[in-house]
């Protein structure tokens, strides 16, 4: 593996290393060699069965992989070698139980989910041997920066492997958490330290981990190429694609390749994210379509230009009646960029809903609150205009509680929507949270008893507000 010896030597010397890779687990297989051999029986951990040699309530995960979103956590589990078991955090209750039973050897989760597990006292980052911070470009400079800093501060002594596709953009972050750590891999800079130019044009579609196959078929239907190739760097993934696609594509001149070199074709569908070098070879074969998660979009914009979206069949067709003025405003905002942090925040919804439906729901909430700027905005309703209701919560700064912890508890434990949460004020011994009037009483009742940063919360409605 390229760079393995150098990376291993860096970890042995200082416990820190920065690896330059595209934001995809398949492109970071060197991590498995650096993490080390799994514990005896670790493969059985995926089923939740107790693992020989691990003690319930005592043994923490040997490796924790901090991901930009849940989609990446699922991809880490799917890309793990056959002798490894990675538990992706898709449900907090089950993950907490498995952690407390000592049944997890490697854990992959989004920042929000890992923070929630810490607040439940199910996860102690400092007890892990190795902490893998996977492509924090979107987290380190966005609204999640505070939560990221707080989480990493919980594991000051763990070996730290930071994966990055653009280390120069993470200079401040690396100075704090990987000071003077060797950078292994090819930086995206030319001979005079200028950012490399994009390889060439490409198109993209946003997908979730479980919708890639339907996205491949949707792309074939929409673009209708005479000849096409589906590319993936993973052999096992290619075999699954061949077995599934071949049944309905006989005679369609469709191939599945793991090698970037090959015969020219009308369309190359990248079922996984390519490196710069791989993209250059794929562009030479034909028109490229990248299937991306929201967290990978910034990287794709750095390696491909112009990068244009392809609208695949789905709920977007049912949302085509949006006003033309509003469509132009949204398109202009997308072209301006700098929406990666918001996309990461919405990522958990993309696993359950089509992105077009999520966008429609956001516009509906905006319209109901009377703040819509496009055509069709309605006057503010009575309920939307009602003042916020204040909750008193008995946790504050002295408990090391941040606004992110309270928002996470209200969303994940109480079940509120982000639109139901207003201003949060943190004091030393308590906090106040503004919530929508219709959910205040239930929120106070459900929040009481929830563990926030290890302390059991008590909440009540301010009747004098």
Please write the CATH class name of the largest domain: Alpha Beta
Number of domains: 4
* Rough outline: globular
The helix count comes to 18
User: How large is the radius of gyration?
Assistant: 23 Å
Based on secondary structure, the structural category is alpha/beta
**Poorly predicted residue ranges:** 41-54, 315-322, 371-386
End-to-end C-alpha gap? 62 Å
Say what the CATH topology of the largest domain is. Answer: Rossmann fold
Question: Approximately how much helix is present in the residues?
Answer: 25-40%
Q: Proportion of β residues?
A: 15-25%
- Strand order, sheet with most strands: 3-4-2-5-6-1-7
* Total beta strands: 19
CATH architecture of the largest domain: 3-Layer(aba) Sandwich
The major sheet is characterized as: 7 strands, parallel
Please name the fourth-level CATH homologous superfamily of the largest domain: P-loop containing nucleotide triphosphate hydrolases
Calculate the mean pLDDT score and round it: 82
Compact overview of the structure:
This protein is of the alpha/beta class.
Detailed description of the structure:
- With 465 residues, the protein is an alpha/beta fold.
- It has 4 domains: 4-184, P-loop containing nucleotide triphosphate hydrolases (Rossmann fold), CATH 3.40.50; 197-313, P-loop containing nucleotide triphosphate hydrolases (Rossmann fold, 3-Layer(aba) Sandwich), CATH 3.40.50.300; 316-384, no CATH class; 386-461, Alpha-Beta Plaits (2-Layer Sandwich).
- 36% of the residues lie in helices and 18% in strands.
- It has helices at 4-14, 30-35, 70-79, 92-100, 111-119, 137-140, 145-153, 171-177, 212-223, 235-245, 276-285, 297-303, 324-336, 340-350, 355-368, 382-385, 403-414, 440-447; strands at residues 16-20, 63-67, 86-88, 106-110, 130-134, 159-164, 183-184, 200-206, 228-231, 254-257, 267-270, 287-292, 304-309, 389-393, 421-426, 431-435, 451-452, 455-456, 459-461.
- A hairpin with a 2-residue loop joins strand 17 and strand 18.
- Helix 5 (111-119) crosses helix 17 and helix 17 (403-414) packs across helix 18 (440-447).
- The longest helix has 14 residues, at 355-368.
- The protein starts with a helix and ends with a strand.
């Amino acid at each position: 593996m390229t760079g393995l010896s150098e990376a291993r030597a860096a970890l042995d010397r200082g416990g820190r290393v920065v690896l330059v890779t595209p934001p995809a687990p398949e492109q970071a297989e060197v991590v498995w060699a650096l993490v080390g051999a799994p514990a005896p029986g670790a493969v059985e951990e995926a089923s939740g069965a107790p693992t020989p040699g691990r003690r319930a309530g005592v043994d923490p995960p040997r490796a924790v992989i901090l991901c930009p979103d849940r989609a990446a956590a699922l991809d880490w589990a799917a890309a793990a070698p056959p002798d490894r078991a990675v538990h992706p955090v898709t449900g907090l209750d089950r993950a907490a139980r498995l952690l407390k039973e000592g049944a997890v050897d490697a854990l992959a989760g989004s920042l929000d989910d890992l923070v929630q597990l810490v607040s439940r006292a199910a996860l102690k980052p400092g007890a892990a041997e190795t902490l893998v911070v996977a492509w924090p470009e979107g987290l380190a400079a966005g609204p999640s920066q505070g939560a990221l800093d707080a989480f990493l501060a919980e594991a000051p002594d763990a070996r730290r492997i930071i994966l990055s596709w653009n280390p120069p953009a993470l200079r401040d972050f690396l100075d704090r958490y990987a000071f003077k750590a060797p950078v292994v891999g090819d930086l995206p800079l030319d001979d005079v330290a200028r950012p490399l130019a994009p390889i060439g044009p490409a198109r993209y579609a946003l997908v979730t981990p479980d919708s890639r196959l339907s996205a491949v078929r949707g792309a074939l239907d929409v673009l209708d190429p005479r000849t096409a190739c589906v590319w993936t760097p993973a052999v096992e993934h290619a075999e699954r694609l061949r077995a599934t696609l071949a049944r309905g594509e006989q005679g369609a001149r469709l191939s599945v390749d793991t090698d970037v070199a090959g015969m020219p074709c009308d369309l190359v569908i990248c079922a996984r994210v390519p490196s710069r070098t791989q993209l250059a070879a794929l562009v030479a074969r034909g028109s490229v379509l990248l299937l991306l998660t929201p967290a990978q979009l910034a990287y794709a914009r750095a390696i491909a230009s112009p990068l244009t979206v392809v609208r695949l069949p789905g709920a977007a067709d049912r949302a085509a009646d949006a006003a033309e003025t509003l469509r132009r405003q949204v398109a202009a905002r997308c072209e301006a960029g700098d929406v990666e942090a918001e996309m990461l925040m919405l990522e958990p919804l993309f696993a359950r809903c089509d992105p077009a439906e999520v966008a429609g729901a956001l516009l509906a909430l905006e319209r109901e609150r009377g703040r819509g700027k496009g055509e069709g905005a309605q006057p503010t309703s009575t309920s939307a205009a009602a003042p916020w209701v204040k909750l008193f919560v008995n946790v504050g700064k002295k408990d090391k509680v941040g606004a992110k912890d309270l928002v996470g508890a209200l969303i994940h434990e109480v079940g509120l929507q982000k639109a139901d949460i207003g201003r949060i004020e943190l004091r030393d011994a308590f906090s106040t949270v503004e919530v929508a009037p219709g959910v205040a009483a239930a929120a106070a009742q459900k929040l009481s008893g929830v563990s926030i940063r290890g302390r059991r919360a008590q909440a009540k409605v301010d009747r004098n507000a």
